[in-house]
Amino acid sequence: MKRILSLIFMLLTISLTVFSEKIPREVSYKSDKLSLSLNNEMLYGNQLYTGRIIINDISYMDLKNGHLDGKTFIKSDRGEVTLNVVNGKLDGDFIIKGLLFEKNTDNILLNFKNGEIKTYIASIDSMSCDLTFDSNGNANGELKDYGTNEKTYLKEGIGKLKDGYVKIFLGNEKNEIIYNKFDKNGKLIIESGKGSYFKTDYVEIIWFYQIFDNFSLLGEFSDD
Questions:
Q1: Strands, DSSP E only, in the chain?
Q2: I want to staple 169 with a disulfide (CB 3.0 to 4.6 A). Which of 3, 73, 157, 175 is the partner?
Q3: Pairwise CA distance, residues 64 & 130, whole Å
Q4: Which of 53, 55, 59, 60 is nearest to 35 (CA)?
Q5: Can you tell me the distance from the alpha carbon of 214 to that of 224, in angstroms, rounded to the nearest whole number?
């Protein structure tokens, strides 16, 4: 009887060992055990992943329960991305450098606090800016158009131009930057940024997909 009980206990132990695989604290992005749920959650096997996904010797993503949590740093010969997530919201500096999107050389710094944009400093193909957003979401600071070589200073969201004016402000949730340009008669001639949200779930859609697309946005990429 004792032998039978010992055998049963041994079989149970083996079964638990086989079926309760330990989730590693670090895993390569090439692991075939990584997948996405229908809700765009990162899975390891069939469990929500908590840990660090290693992309190359210096690049990684930190996750908790299948979502970004903590720091993400991705660097290749083509560009660099840094961001931080706290309690499901972007927090701190979100930095984009290099030839990532389209073929422009972008240098962008967005600073967030609890998911809300506080500053926007950028030098991209057609313009540069150094903007701070007040409690009402209105931009204050400098904007330069490289095409016209015109520089304007915004106060409470409004900046005067030679042939009109611009308005730059945050959307209702303070995570989208809206740019409106008007002619001298007050007619809206350019509207951009509306609907371009800087939210954690949008960031996850982009970068989680890149894991399974060999980080095509980064161009020449080495994972050695």
A1: 26-28, 34-36, 42-44, 47-48, 51-54, 60-64, 67-75, 79-86, 89-90, 92-98, 106-113, 116-123, 127-133, 139-145, 150-154, 158-161, 164-170, 177-183, 188-192
A2: 157
A3: 33
A4: 53
A5: 13
Beta strand pairing call for 79-86 and 67-75? antiparallel
Burial of 161 (0-12, 13-18, 19+ CB in 10 A): middle
Tens-digit pLDDT profile for residues 45-61: 999 999 999 999 999 99
Give Cα 160 distance to the centre of its chain. Answer: 32
pLDDT reported for residue 99:
66
Residue found by looking up tokens 């161009």 in the block: 219
Distance CA 212, CA 195 (A): 26
Enclosing H/E stretch for 6: helix 2-19
Residue with tokens 């945050």: 170
Query: Position of tokens 């600071």?
Result: 141
| pLDDT tens per residue across span 110-138 | 999 999 999 999 998 788 999 999 999 99
pLDDT digit string, tens, across residues 83-103: 999 999 999 999 998 866 555
Do the bridges between strand 106-113 and strand 47-48 make them parallel or antiparallel, or are there none, so unpaired?
unpaired
